[in-house]
C-alpha cells in the first residue's frame, strides 16, 4: 500500500500542528479507563501466549500506549504519520523504538509480529480507503497473531463523519468494521462497547481479532 496519499498528509499536518497539546491531553488517560485497560490486557495476554511478543502500535501518537504494551510484557515499537508526535514519543520513552510512517505500510517482514494495536488511529481513514489497512495488518501478523482495534462507535447508525478535535474522523458500526476484518481472514475473538464518559460524546468500540492461521 502506498505510504503517501493526500489524506495522510492532511492527518500528519493536523497532528503536527497540535502535537504538544494532544500529547498533554492523552498522558495518563488510561488511568481512568478500567474497561479499556482490561481489553488491552487481554490482548497482551493472548499475544504472550502465542509466543511472539514483538508487536506494533500502528498510529502510536506520543507513545503512551506503546509504553503500556511494554509494561504488559510485550516487545513493542510504534509507527505514526506525525513527525512531531514521534519526536515527543522518543523523548518521553527513549528506550522504545518509534518510526515515522504509515500504518498502511509497516516496515517489517511478512508474518513477523505477534500482535498489532490500532488505538483510535483508524478513525481518520476515509471509509473507502480502510480495507487495504486490514490487508496490511494481516500481512505483518504471524498466523494466529492478534489484532486489537479501538474506535469510535456509531451506536447503531451507519458510518458517519464527526468533528474530531484534531482532524475529521469517522464513527463506525461495530458489525461493519468486524466484517471488513473478516474479509481479510481475521477471526473475531471478543468485542467490547463502552458508553461515553461525562467528557466524551460517543460510545467507544473495541474489537479483538486473530489472524486465521490458515490464511
Binned, the helix content reads 25-40%
Q: What is the beta-strand fraction?
A: 25-35%
The structure class reads: alpha/beta
Distance between the termini: 19 Å
Q: What's the overall average pLDDT, rounded?
A: 94
**Total beta strands:** 9
Low-confidence stretches: none
Strand order of the largest sheet: 3-2-1-4-5-9-8
Write the element-wise H/E pattern from the N-terminal end onward.
Answer: HHHEHEHEEHEEEHEE
Q: Number of DSSP helices?
A: 7
What descriptors fit this protein?
215 residues; seven-stranded mixed beta sheet; 35% helix
Explain what this protein looks like in three dimensions.
The chain has 215 residues and is of the alpha/beta class. The strands form two sheets. The chain has a seven-stranded mixed beta sheet with strand order 3-2-1-4-5-9-8, with helices on both faces. It contains seven helices and nine strands. 35% of the residues lie in helices and 27% in strands.
SSE topology sketch:
Layout: H1 6-17, H2 19-26, H3 34-50, E1 54-58, H4 64-71, E2 75-80, H5 83-92, E3 97-100, E4 113-119, H6 131-140, E5 141-152, E6 160-162, E7 169-171, H7 174-183, E8 186-194, E9 204-211
Parallel strand pairs: 1-2, 1-4, 2-3, 4-5
Antiparallel strand pairs: 5-9, 6-7, 8-9
Could you give a quick summary of the protein structure above?
The chain is an alpha/beta fold and 215 residues long. It is built from seven helices and nine strands, in the order αααβαβαββαβββαββ.
Amino acid at each position: 500500500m502506498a505510504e503517501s496519499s493526500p489524506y495522510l498528509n492532511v492527518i500528519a499536518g493536523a497532528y503536527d500542528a497540535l502535537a504538544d497539546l494532544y500529547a498533554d491531553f492523552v498522558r495518563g488517560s488510561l488511568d481512568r479507563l478500567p474497561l479499556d485497560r482490561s481489553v488491552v490486557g487481554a490482548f497482551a495476554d493472548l499475544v504472550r501466549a502465542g509466543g511472539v511478543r514483538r508487536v506494533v502500535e500502528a498510529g502510536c501518537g506520543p507513545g503512551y500506549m506503546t509504553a503500556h504494551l511494554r509494561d504488559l510484557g510485550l516487545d513493542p515499537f510504534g509507527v505514526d504519520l506525525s513527525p512531531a508526535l514521534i519526536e515527543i514519543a522518543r523523548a518521553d520513552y527513549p528506550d522504545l523504538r518509534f518510526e515515522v510512517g504509515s500504518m498502511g505500510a509497516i516496515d517489517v517482514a511478512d508474518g513477523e509480529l505477534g500482535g498489532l494495536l490500532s488505538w483510535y488511529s483508524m478513525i481518520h481513514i476515509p471509509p473507502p480507503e480502510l480495507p487495504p489497512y486490514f490487508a496490511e495488518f494481516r500481512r505483518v501478523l504471524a498466523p494466529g497473531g492478534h489484532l486489537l482495534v479501538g474506535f469510535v462507535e456509531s451506536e447503531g447508525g451507519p458510518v458517519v463523519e464527526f468533528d474530531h478535535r484534531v482532524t475529521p474522523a469517522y464513527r463506525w458500526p461495530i458489525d461493519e468494521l468486524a466484517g471488513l476484518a473478516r474479509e481479510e481472514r481475521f477471526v473475531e475473538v471478543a468485542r467490547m462497547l463502552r458508553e461515553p464518559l461525562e467528557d466524551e460524546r460517543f460510545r467507544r468500540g473495541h474489537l479483538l481479532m486473530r489472524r486465521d492461521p490458515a490464511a
